[in-house]
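FW: tagging you since you asked about this chain on Friday. Here's the raw sequence from the shared folder, copied in full. Didn't touch anything.
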Amino acid sequence: MAREDEYDYLFKVVLIGDSGVGKSNLLSRFTRNEFNLESKSTIGVEFATRSIQVDKKTIKAQIWDTAGQERYRAITSAYYRGAVGALLVYDISKHGTYENVERWLKELRDHADTNIIISLVGNKSDLRHLRSVPSEEAKAFAEKNGISFIETSALDSTNVEQAFHTILTEIYHIVSQRQIPDPNGSQGNSGSHSAPVPLRLPPSDTDFKSKQNGSCCS
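HL: got it, structure written out here
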């Protein structure tokens, strides 16, 4: 297994959605395999990291979780800066959180890079007896807006790995297809092969970062 400080790509992924939909527990389940029933509402911004393997490359995901309350909206611009993926989360047992998805999607598209990969996530699928958002309705919304859709449960882990792996793999495939050889022929950090250079995407501060950059998402 790769050490935490060794990776080929660093991708910033943001979690957005109403307060109480389970964003923090999705983050902790994926990064630490933990779930906290007493989870409090996030204040400001938190993030955690985890590395996965895709096509023999080490992808380090830096996953940001933010407060869903309106009073924290001032952090919006900094939160989205540099993000290449977003999980838009709602609670399948609370239709109001689903009704707000359209507003969250608009905010995301207003502030994030136009190339960002988005997945709609219906969380708390373990509460199927309390379901108020039909899967087909959410799936149709996702298709209409050109984003993917999945239902998860941070409580029992259902589809949590798949949700993150799917979006990270999609980001990786887009990045790898846009790469060009280093025109200087410089060696990668390992010194064993020429390092590919990701093509920058506008705006300039919102690019897919590889370890050659030596920098972290802001």
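FW: The chain has one domain: 9-178.
HL: agreed, and Residues 160-177 form the longest helix (18 residues).
FW: great, closing this out.
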